[in-house]
Write a structure and sequence with these properties.
Strand content: under 5%
Number of helices: 5
Order of helices and strands: HEHHHEH
Distance between the termini: 77 Å
Largest sheet: 2 strands, parallel
Helix content: over 70%
Structural class: mainly alpha
């Protein structure tokens, strides 16, 4: 009984060795020649993404400064409204409270819109970088003969250096796309 499983696995192993050659001979799927790329490293180290993140942080900082000033004004207005509560009629107080609440809601809306605009801008930069990375991988595929690229994060085991293309992709990406100009949100 123990002999049957080992024969089965031996036949299965031989079959897997022959299938790629049979498939290629019949014009079917070619054998996989794999390269590995570290997408996280590309995202972290690509010069275009670094400069775009720096520009976006400057926009975010500038906008945050504006928001802090407006929040201070709203706090002062809220304190003044609280002080006036005793001297105002309930109707007038309610009108001013609603006007104040409308200002708070408007500020929150602007904060959310600006944050979404910044995120969208970074997404656009990432799309540009991704298109360039894909073009570079196609070029490398022709040069080196691989026909499949896997992301290092998806792999469960270490990869030999001769499969790794990340450094070459980064080098070419930084040459082709050293930076991306990011326009200030709302400034057309």
């Amino acid at each position: 009984m123990l002999r049957l499983p080992s024969i089965f696995f031996a036949c299965l192993a031989v079959l897997f060795l022959l299938v790629p050659d049979m498939a290629a001979a019949q014009g079917k799927i070619p054998p996989a020649v794999i390269a590995v790329i570290d997408a996280q490293r590309i995202n972290r180290d690509a010069q275009a993404l670094k400069t775009a993140r720096q520009q976006l942080e400057q926009f975010r900082f500038s906008f945050q400064s504006e928001i802090v000033k407006e929040e201070e004004q709203l706090r002062a207005e809220d304190q003044e409204l609280a002080r006036q509560r005793a001297v105002l009629t309930p109707e007038v107080f309610e009108q001013r409270r609603q006007a104040f609440q409308a200002k708070v809601i408007e500020l929150q809306r602007r904060i959310q819109e600006r944050s979404q605009a910044l995120d969208k801008m970074l997404g656009g930069v990432r799309d540009q970088v991704t298109k360039e990375v894909v073009a570079i991988m196609k070029q490398l595929s022709t040069e080196r003969g691989f026909n499949m690229v896997l992301d290092r994060a998806q792999l469960q085991m270490p990869v030999a250096d001769n499969f790794e293309i990340t450094a070459e992709v980064l080098k070419r990406l930084d040459q082709r796309l050293p930076s991306v100009k990011v326009a200030l949100p709302g400034a057309q």
